[in-house]
Every structure is written in C-alpha cells, then in structure tokens.
Amino acid sequence: MNDTTPDTVPATHDAPQGQRRLARRVTLVNGIAVLFVLGLAAAVLAADALLLVFACVLFAILLYKLSEIMHRRFHLQRKLALGIVVLLLGAIIGLGGWAMAPQISEQSTQLAKEIPAAIERLQGEVEQHPLLKRVVDELPPPEDIVKQMSSLVPNAGLFFTGVLGALGNVVIIIFVGIYFAATPGVYTGGFIRLIPQHRRGRAREVIDEIGDSLASWLLGKAVSMLIVGTTTAIGLSLLGVPLALILGIIAGLLDFIPYLGPIMAGIPAVLLALSISPEMAMYALLLFAAINMLEGYVLQPMIEAKAIDLPPALVIVMQLVFGTLFGFAGVALATPLAAVLSVLVKMLYIEDVLGDRPAQGAAPG
User: What single DSSP character describes residue 363?
Assistant: First the structure.
C-alpha cells in the first residue's frame, strides 16, 4: 500500500491543472474567434472609413519618408523638414492647379461629352459586322460610362455631388496624414502597448518593415505616375489626339493601380482617337502599349528593387477581391494592402511560426 500511495497523489493533483490548462486554451480560442468575427463585422460595416484611414496612413508614410530624406541630407530638425516638405508639395500642387485649372475644367467637361459620342460612332461603324456588333452590344450604355468617368475626372458640373465628397476625403487625408507624420511615435507606440511585452520588440520590427516597404513603394510609384502622366500627355498631343492634357492626368493618376490602371486610362484615349480615324486609334494604342512596357519593364522593377516584389497574380486577385467588396477605392488601395499582407505573412507566419528565417548576411528573397 505504501508503494502505491506516491503514484496516485500526482495523478489526482495533475488532473485539475490539466483541466485548467484546457479551459484556458478553450477560452483563448473562443476569445480569438469572437474578436475575429467582431473585427470582420467592423471591417464590413466600416469599410469606407477603414480604407480612408489606410489612405491617411499611406500619405503620412510618404510625408515622413520625404522629411526623413531632407533631415538626413540637410541636417534639419524632423518637424522643420516635415513643414518644408508640406509647404513645397502645397506650392507645387497649388501653382500647378492654378495654372492649369481652366484648361483642366474645360477639357474634363468636354471629355464627359465626347466619350458617349465616340461610343455611339463606334456602334454605328460596326453595325455591318455581326461579330463586332455582338461585342459592342455588351458595352454599357454611354450614360453609365459618363458616370464612371465622372468619378475619375474633375467635372465642374458634379462639384456638389461626387466631387464634393472626394474633395472632403482629400482634405481628411491631408490633415490626418500630416498629424500622423508629425508624431508617428505616439501612434505606433500606443499600438505596440496593446501587445504583450515579450512580443513588443518583434511587433516594432514588423511595423518598421511595413513602413519602409510602403515608403519605398510610394516614392517609386509617385515618380512612375509623374513619368507616365507626362509622357502620355506629350505623346497624345504630338499625335493630335484631342484633350491630351486631361487624358495624361487620368493616365498618371490611374498608374497608381498596377496592371488595371493603364487599361482603364487607355480606353477613353483610344475611343477619342477612333472618332478621328482608325489609324489615329492604332497610333494611340501603340503609344499606350509602349508606355506600359516602359512602366512594366523599367519603372516597376526599379520600384520592386527598393520595396516588395509582389507577384502579378496576387496583385490582380487583390484588386478583384477588394474591388468587388469596396468599389474603386478598394481597387486603388489593393496593391499597398497586398504589400502589408506580404510583410505580415513573411515575418509573422513564415519566419516566426514556421521558423524559416533567412540566413544572416543573405540577400532577402
């Protein structure tokens, strides 16, 4: 009897501990599930607000990166460098907008009228071709195309509807982005304090990696947008395509959206060129193909060399998914969201969970 007594005591003592551990795990899993469902519901119900906040963060990262470059090069205080960056950007955009505002307003209004007329002429020309007629019949009505174009083009006639809301969003992005960029440590530090202490160091590493990747991508994309917009406007003007300035602005803005953006920008230009002659439409199509090749084979690799090399299929899938869920704003922000997702998967899952960390001194893949 004395030999069996020590064996039975630990068994009865371990049973409650095992039950408590199991209860804690079940509670933790249930809590994570509830938080996930609540977070998903909040994301669906407040999708527009969350996308707007993400746009504010992107603008803040861009301002912070530019101010950091000025801080290192000219040895200025960080907030002074940020103030100079904001003033320079405001002066460039303000003076450029003031100089080109009348022409932009006139051309955007004219573009909204010319696109439906170009589609009607195209429909009339292909009536004798059954195959082409079937394709053109699938096109949306000209009125719907005008509404889609109006959301992309500054149209004075829509100032008190869609454009007014867009201007409000731009104001929010500018001011919130400046506040974020002025004191980034307050916001990142507050977020990190929500994480357990033993994981805060890794959380800061992940946040820094996301910030560096997005900053490099944004700087490269800003240069790419400027080059694409300027090249498109000059090329269309040399070809004799009408409304070259506003078409160049549209091409530059839509270059923010990889792969789908150049296609969306090329459609109105080719339609307008087709209203002049089929040869002009072919030249415009070749121009957009050449600019797309320049962007895809020269500018994009330079951007990815400094940021994250995102697979094209992943970017397109993200654009389709976020476009379906959140509309055009989801399509526009799909690429930086994919970059954030790529960093999270690489650092938190591949490296931390799977333990597949790159060797020290090895180049990142």
Answer: P
Token pair belonging to 335:
């690429």
Distance CA 267, CA 72 (A): 43
Alpha carbons 268 and 279: distance in angstroms, whole number: 16
The span from the CA of 8 to the CA of 2, in Å, is 11
pLDDT digits (tens, 9 = 90+) for 47-69: 778 888 899 999 999 999 999 99
**For 178-189, what is each residue's pLDDT tens digit?**
999 999 988 898
What pLDDT does 42 receive?
63
Q: Which two tokens stand for residue 279?
A: 């040869």
* Contact criterion met (CB below 8 Å) for 46 and 325: no
DSSP string, 41-93: HHHHHTHHHHHHHHHHHHHHHHHHHHHHHHHHHH---HHHHHHHHHHHHHHHH
* Cα separation, 334 vs 321, whole angstroms: 9
Percent of the chain, pLDDT > 70? 75
If one compares 162 and 123, the residue with the highest pLDDT of the two is 123
Answer for the pair 337, 322: CB distance below 8 angstroms, yes or no: yes
Residue 254: closest CA among 283, 291, 279, 290? 291
**Angstrom distance (rounded) from CA 246 to CA 232:** 10
Q: Are 339 and 309 in contact (CB under 8 A)?
A: no
Residues 229-232: contacts with CB under 8 Å, at least 24 apart = 229/253, 229/255, 231/291, 231/294, 232/265, 232/269, 232/287, 232/288, 232/291
Query: Which of 82, 81, 100 lies closest to 92, judged by CA?
Result: 100
